[in-house]
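residues and backbone:
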Amino acid sequence: MIKTTRRQILAAGVSVPLLSLAGCSPASSAVPDFVKRKGSRLTLDDKTYRFVGANLWYGAYLGADAAYGDRPRLVRELDRLKALGITNLRIMASAEEGPLKAGIKPGFRTRDSWNETLFEGLDYCMAEMAKRDMKAVLCLTNFWEWSGGMMTYLHYATGEYVDMNDPAHPWPEFPDRNSDFYRSEEAIGLYHDHVRHMVGRTNKVTGQRYSDDPALMSWQLCNEPRPGVTPEVIDRALPDYYAWIGATAKLIRSIDGNHLLSLGQEGTTASAGREDVFVEAHREMDYLTAHIWPLNWGWVDGKDLAGTWDAGAAKVADYIDTHVRLATEMGKPLVFEEFGFPRDGELYDPEIPTTFRERFYAMIYQAVEDSVASGGPVAGSNFWAWNGEARAAHDDRRFHRGDTAYMGDPPHEPQGWYGIFDRDASMHDVIKAHGAEIRKN
């Protein structure tokens, strides 16, 4: 293992910003079919690039040539998404095997070994996406427990861990403890080993290096990285948090000068509402990200969506406006790369109506369309998430160890909570209408 020292991390944190203004390293050549950044716009072939996207975290799992994979299903799901007008998919390119109860197995890695079969599953997924002219955002680890993530890296380094939702360690102990990752040289070194392994990889299906693949839009440092939740923990973690961002950005750009970088942060919610943290965390990124979760954040009551919709919608509108303003002030593109809402009554079956979910999607999509029409910074969105033909395998609507009917709802969540099924016709209509509107511009 090649470790990154604390001195190197801190040095990298102040050495990257000039490179980030160009969106690539000085040595990279201009290739017309890579997505690039030009001011507050994303571009492709020198034209403004806008997209309608989805989250498909399990793409590599379906693509794996193994008992836990299903390549024919992956092909069917990509065809369905293409028919809806989806051109951009956000996918996990990591999963760390460890002791966390909700962590999916198999993973891309253990502490000391790589799962080549799962990497080849991602290779297959990327090759199939390229055939459909889709772009990928590949996420390199997770702040949350369902794919192992930062807590598992801490376990690799220290032998210690905290499980999310453990009654002995109630909220917010998990995210606050997870912030220790940013000051662990060994944990960051192991994570950087994965970054090198993934970013420097050659796709075994296409024979093309990932760094040269135009089907890739962006490397993403992490899914929803937070510097903690408790204000004093955030204050303590921020120098290390910023240093981790800077060091990782520098590392990726030293391997791949063609592709964009993104952080994967939720927005100001990730820092207890602090705009200064959002701005500083994204200073070295090519575009900004925001996630919007009204139910998870307590803005609506899933059992009383009708009674809480108006107040919740007002908070959604304010959150959107805040991040559009920040993107405008920073002169960078913005992507709403996660947003989700429950079915009526917060029930899970595909037969349950999606009345309020349709309203919520319409809000997000209208904000994107308004920004497009006004020349604003919003480049696109990725809804969370695509369930496709999968159905809950158990009466308790939970993912059980060994299940392979992957949904957009990851293993730690009720299966059917937020995902869009292949037969959600009214939701499909909302997505298609938005795609048609985006394509007009």
